[in-house]
Amino acid sequence: MTAKMQWSLILLFLCCFIDCQLYQFHYINENKNWTEAQQYCREKHTDLVTVTNMKDMKRLINISAGDQSDHTYIGLFRDTWRWSDGSSFSFRHWNPIFNNHNPNSGQCAMTKFDGEGRWTNVNCDNKKPFICYDETNTTHKYHLIKEEKSWQEAQSYCREKHTDLISGMKQLQDEEVKKLLNSNYQPYIGLFRDTWRWSDGSSFSFRHWNPNKLILIKEAMNWEDALTYCRGHHYNLVTITNVDDQKQIQEKVKEASTDYVWMGLRYACTLDLWFWVSDEMVSDENWAKGEPMDDCDMSGAMETGGEHQWKKKNDTEKFNFICSKN
């Protein structure tokens, strides 16, 4: 969606009572872009609507019934990088060689204290040491935790035993931190990429994507050409992050003319990891038995028959593929 696209919007007003929270939805029949809609909602109510479950979804459908617009804005938007403790993220200090080589390789960040302390994005499941901080009224105290954990495990550890993962440039440039890490450690920091988020900051993971935003392309192409086609004509090669995604795509692939269909799943040989080209984490895995057995020049494809499991296939093989429209 571009800033030039003008649609109607829905916004959210939050009323708090003694024993409960009541979300009151207001349908605004004005044409605005998403940013203008968000500003309007925050000024006159609370925020753009957050959808937490199917009950909310049905309420939205009822409140917008009879509207002539094809689309209505909600508070879900595509985000980039942010800090674990909510600190403002504007300054970038990436390792230019690594990220220019493969910008989609991971959704979490680590740093190397080698004089420059540049950041590198890595797969969040990698096990690494990490830095926690304790916050008082006037100072911060930092702790290098040498026990290796995934990024999410590190975040939970820091929040349980300290305040959070180290976050923000002010903390990372603290002299105490620099003294703490005169070593070869490459620890996690509190920087991560949460591709989709709600305008009001809610952590609800509920999604209700339109299944028609997936399209099966019945042309046989290699993986690179399929990716280029999807990005040129639609949005991207498809990403699967949960069981519902898997079920929707299974129905689509039944119509394919090849034994497999390409997905947006790729193996990065130099980094030794699998990643989605849409920047989503590889969390819901449906690999066939014995797969993936990491290997170079490989990408992920789904069986069009059987149990529709995933298999690694050489990038040069030609299959149908599924594009996403958002």
From TrEMBL:
Keywords: Signal
SMART domains cross-referenced by the UniProt entry: CLECT (SM00034)
Extent of the signal sequence: 1-20
Domain of life: Eukaryota
Domain C-type lectin: 25-133, 137-212, 209-324
Keyword Ion transport: no
Organism of provenance: Poecilia formosa
Keyword Nucleus set for record: no
Protein name (Swiss-Prot/TrEMBL): C-type lectin domain-containing protein
Pfam families: Lectin_C
